[in-house]
Amino acid sequence: MNRLHTLAADPAPSPLERVGVRRVNDFAIVLIGSSKGGLAALQKLLGFLPATFKTPVVIVQHRMESAEDLLVELLQKNTELYLKEVEDKDIINRGVIYLAPAGYHLLIEEDHFALSTEGPVSASRPSIDVLFESAAEEFGSKVVGIILTGMNRDGAQGLKKIKEAGGITLVQDPEEAEARQMPDAAIAASKVDYILALEGIGRFLNSGGAAPFPFPPNGGKLSVPQ
Amino acid sequence: MLNPKIEQIEFELLLEGIYQAYGYDFRDYAPASLRRRVQKSMDNLGVKTISEFQDKILHEKESFVHFLNTVSIDVTAMFRDPDFFLAVRQKIVPIIRELPSVRIWHAGCATGEEVYAMAILLQEENLYNKVRIYATDMNAVVLDKAKNGIYPLKNIQDCTANYHKSGGSHEFSTYYTAKYNNVIMKPELKKNIVWAQHNLVTDRSFHEFDLILCRNVMIYFERPLQEHVHQLFLDSMPIGGILGLGKKETMYSSAFRPNYMEMDGNAKLFRRVK
User: Fold this and answer.
1) Where are the domains of chain B?
2) CA quadruple B56, B57, B62, B67: dihedral positive or negative?
3) Per-residue pLDDT at A20
4) CATH match of A25-222 with 3.40.50.180
5) Is A173 a catalytic residue?
6) pLDDT band at B155 (very low <50, low <70, confident <90, very high)
7) Domain coordinates of chain A in residue numbers?
8) What's the CATH superfamily of B82-272?
9) Model's pTM, two decimal places?
10) Are the C-beta atoms of residues A22 and A160 closer than 8 Å to each other?
11) Is there a cis peptide before residue A214, judged by omega within 30 degrees of 0?
C-alpha cells in the first residue's frame, strides 16, 4: 500500500526550476478557497484563465448543504475550461476546474479525489483547510493556494500548511474583498507570498507558462513580512 | 518536520496491527481521510507519534474503541439530501408496493438517521408493515446510538425542512418526542428494524434484499475495496433488486456497472438487470 507521498513529495525539478524559476505550469494543482462574496469573486477570477490553462484548479466555495446546486452552471459561464463538481474517486485531470460538492469534504489522494462526510472542520463542510492540508501532503511544494473573500477563518491553517510544504500562497487583498475576515485570518496565520486584488491574482494565474515567478504584482501589493 | 517515509511505514504497521489484533481491516481504506481520523484520535488521546498510538491501541482495548468511534462517526441528519428520498417515493415505492414482503438493507447505517427517515417514509406510504429493515454497522457503539434513536433537538429544524422537501406532508413532530435538548424517535418506527453488527470489508452476505442502501460509506474505500463490496451487494440481491448510493458516488468505473440499469442518475439509484 505504498501510495502516499509518491507523486509529488519528491518531484523531479523541471529545467527552469533547477535555475530557480517556477511557473504555474510547473505546479501540480491550483487551489482556491472562498466563502461570503465568493461567487462574484470566482466569476471574475475564472475570467482570467485562458482556455489553454493546463494546471488543474480546485475550488472550495462555502454554501448551504441544501442549496440547489447552480454554482457549476453559474461558474461555467465565466470560463471556457471544463468545470465539474467532483464525484467520488474522480481522477484529477489537467485542463479541468473542479468544484467541491456541497456537504462533503474534498481531499486529494495521489492522482484522484476522495470525499468525506466527517463533521464540519473550521465550521465548514466542505472545509478549505481540509482540502489545502491534504493537497500539501500529497503534492508538497507543487501547490498554489489562494484564499479569497469570506466571513470566517477557514483556510488559514491550510494555507499555512501549503506554505510550510514549499508551495506558493496568495490571498485576496482584504481591502478589496467583500468580506475581509478570511483573507485577514490567512494573512495572520502565515507569511503569504502575495496579497493581491482579484485582477492581480487573475494575471498571476494567466501568466502560467509565460511569465516566470516571482510575478510582478500588478494590481496588488507584495505581502509585508511580519 | 516528520519524515513522510517513516510516517508511511508507521501508518501501514498500525493498520496491520489493528487488523491482526481486532479483525477490523482498514488497510484498503482511502488513506487521506483515514489519516485525518488517526490524527484526530491521536490528538484526543494525547499521543505524538503513530508508533506511540499503535502501542496504546494494541494494548488498551478502550483506546481502540475510541479510534473506531472516531473513524465511524459522520455528521448526518434525517432526510439529508431530500432529492434522494423524493426519488425513493417516486421510483422505489411503486415497485415495492407490488411485492408481498420487502427486505431493505441499510449497509453502514452509522447513527441511524437515514434508517428512521426510511421508516417514516414507508409508514406514510402504508408499506411499513410488510417491510423488514436490516440496519448494520461495523461499530457496536454507533449501532447502539442508532438503536436508541436519540438526536439533538437543534438539528430538527433542518430535518423538518428537508422532510417536507423530500415529499413528506405530515407534521414531522409526530415522529418524535422532544425531551430536554434531544428528540427520541417514536417506538413504532423501530418495530420492523433489525439492528446488527456487520463489517462490509470482512463479513459476508447474510440475506437477499430487494433494496440495499449504502450511501456515503464506500467513499472511504479505495477502488478495489469498493469492488469487493459491490460483489457482496450482488451476492445479496436478486435480479430486479435496487442499489442506492450517495449523491456523489458513481459506478462508472466499476466492473459491476453492466449488472445495473440506472433508475435515477441524480439520486444514484441502480436496478440490477443481470
Assistant:
1) 4-72, 82-272
2) positive
3) 56
4) yes
5) no
6) confident
7) 25-222
8) Vaccinia Virus protein VP39 (3.40.50.150)
9) 0.90
10) no
11) yes
